[in-house]
Amino acid sequence: MARYDIRIFGDPVLKRVADEVTDIDGALVDTCNDMLDAMYEAPGIGLAAPQVGIGKRFFVYDFGEGPAVLINPEIRESDGLWEYEEGCLSIPGLSFNIVRPKTIHIVAYDIDGEEISIEADELESRLYQHELDHLNGKLMFDYLEEDQVKEAKRVLRERTMTAESSGPGLQLP
Ligand code: NI
To answer: pTM for the complete prediction?
Structure first.
């Protein structure tokens, strides 16, 4: 079992703007490793600190090239538009077509405290933008029409009731 449970939509931590990371140290390395365990177990390709209840600006990810971390990430430039079906571990089982910039230039620190600069396209770019949204208290719902959000919440609520009546499962507020 991973040390962290992934927080689900409705948890107030997911709506908060996270704070800058001030120390890149051994404790942060341990936290990132535990977050990666939770991410792989889910399974998912990205997990932001607020999703495990930590209000700090970093996220872990692995889109097929091995585990990595971005700390205090900032998007410097973005270009184009790309529609893609996105999911989120905090909104389990649902996905939505969302239009976002296609390419981005992102700067951040890595787990060794080195400044890094990445030009990202398509899936990689999408992943960084989605995780960075979590650091700003933003969820996919913020991109949807009111009707879509209502329907999604109804589906999630129904699933919670089913989970409750059939024992342990999805826990939604
Ligand atoms: Ni997410």
So the answer is: 0.91
